Amino acid sequence: MSQELSPSGIYHSKLQSILSGWKSDSVKATFSCSNKELVDYYCLYSEVMLSSQKEKALVTGASSGIGREIARVLGSQGCDLVITARRKAELESLAKELTDRHSIEVKVVVSDLSEQVGVENLIRDTGEIDILVNNAGFGFNGEHLSLNQEGQLNMIDLNIRALTHLARHYGAEMKKQGSGKILNVASIAGYQPGPKMAVYCATKAYVLSYTRALHSELKKSGVSVTALCPGFVETGFQEVAGMDLGALELSGAVPAEKVAKTAVKAMRKGRREVIPGLLNKPIPYANRLIPISLNLAVVKRLMS
Description:
- The protein is of the alpha/beta class.
- 55% of the residues lie in helices and 12% in strands.
- The strands form 2 sheets. It has a 7-stranded parallel beta sheet with strand order 3-2-1-4-5-6-9, with helices on both faces. It has a two-stranded parallel sheet with strand order 7-8.
């Protein structure tokens, strides 16, 4: 093909005319195009346009729960994905589901992000992205001094260090290109201290504060940063944390699928933070009105 058959300028308008009268002999005569050339025009234009518009997203903690559902939402929107977690079988199952359903590219990276080398390998294997979803995290329920120290330090490494490393790295890349979106998964627990989940609540308070600050710093850069602050969610988190939800907690629990849709919608709007579930939304405001001693007593009772 000659230079004039580029997918821009006059070629764009020419292609539109051709496609609108695909079977018209007059169109073929006007542009002196054979059927094969028409197909070549269309394929070239489609390839260029799709490649220039398609997004690529990295989702951590994608093997279950909120992370898996966010990957499903982004996949349904046509995003190519890099999904990561420690469980290979679950990731591969999700990748097959999404590629079969949406005809997108899904790359599986098995990695333990509580280790520095795991984060570095993920960055190396992922390449450039348009969307970062920092979802990987876990918590423990119990008295701080009674819980395993190594496990709690690993929680800090995953919930804080890995999240910060990825947001810093990809945030800088996004700022250079003038566009991008970061979704950090915090928690409703980030709005108050949490006896019986002291370290977990502290890590989520960090994520919330960090996200708010980063949102402000990048506000005019074309990069948005959003904190997702779910309450009790119907996932496997409670099992890992050693929690049994009572009737009160279950009444406010939101399905992970709904949380994911709410999160992605807020992220695309560039919101600073979002709290899924009507019963959860008043909690941050209520915490400002009641004495901290009462706040601590209520949370301690709920966690017992």
